[in-house]
């Protein structure tokens, strides 16, 4: 493999990059070229104001066979760290991009390439938000062991998901009886004596206004409001991410209205026949109608009717996810310390 360092984001690689993802060990929306390009433009919405791009590609006979989308920054204890683009806050799942057959050769060559003078000094390769089933974890351990470098991995967060049967009644029959009754009761209660509708934003002319309404709804949650307040560019970054997803027809920006007023919103991605739940917001003045549960119920019914195979809540172990029938998996952190 021929390795190359990119210190500016390689715009010309978009087609090759995204084609490689289709055969990669991991295929998630957060490692696509357009997403990581947007993330890098704002350094994660301001999360990494001081960062240096260390994006490495590998080719064999001229064909792109691997991408390690990395950047260098001071991280824990001020160590010079190489992290995956997208780290850490706003990208739920990350990974390198390589086919299973090329994984070991790519990782072995990557670690050796990262010691070259053109990359410069660094202390630790620190990879966050890798799904626990990713072959990268075992592959990186093997590659590190060959160099005598310490490797560690740890669970970071729960990341529950719902396998969908493709039928609403079958889905309901598969969850706890008490929760099945609760979902139906909350939907029925909201619909009684109220004008209730839910919809997915389809009109490009309305997207910006709908996103502004969604962000405002999110900011009624003090924790989410504080998250946005940490950076002047975080809102702009989210706006750009959703615009990009909308243009590629994989955005599901859904709202529940009660008596003509927005009561809840979900921002999701529709990708690879999965629904990826990215964020949510609620109007606290309408909590008596359980708008979050109601909209989630409508979305799950729609996802089943559309024959989606999975409803992924991504990071976070909030109890409502399990009440809707989610099962656990985890995102991991893997570190390799340079010696």
Structural class label: alpha+beta
- Can you identify the CATH class of the largest domain? Alpha Beta
Tally the beta strands. 14
* CATH topology descriptor of the largest domain: Aminopeptidase
Task: Describe the structure in brief.
The protein has helices at residues 14-21, 33-41, 43-46, 103-113, 136-147, 168-173, 177-191, 207-218, 222-229, 234-247, 291-305, 319-323, and strands spanning 2-6, 52-60, 63-74, 80-84, 97-98, 124-131, 151-158, 161-163, 196-200, 251-258, 261-271, 274-282, 310-312, 330-337. With 339 residues, it is an alpha+beta fold. It folds into two domains: 2-158 and 331-337, 3-Layer(aba) Sandwich (Aminopeptidase); 161-312, Aminopeptidase (3-Layer(aba) Sandwich), CATH 3.40.630.30.
What does this structure look like?
The chain has 339 residues and is an alpha+beta fold. It has two domains: 2-158 and 331-337, Aminopeptidase; 161-312, 3-Layer(aba) Sandwich (Aminopeptidase). The chain has twelve helices and 14 strands. Helix 2 packs antiparallel against helix 10 (234-247), helix 7 packs across helix 11 (291-305) and helix 8 (207-218) packs across helix 10. The longest helix is centred in the middle third of the chain and has 15 residues, at 177-191. The model has no long low-confidence stretch (mean pLDDT 96).
List its traits.
single chain; 339 residues; alpha+beta; Aminopeptidase; 2 domains; six-stranded mixed beta sheet; 14 strands
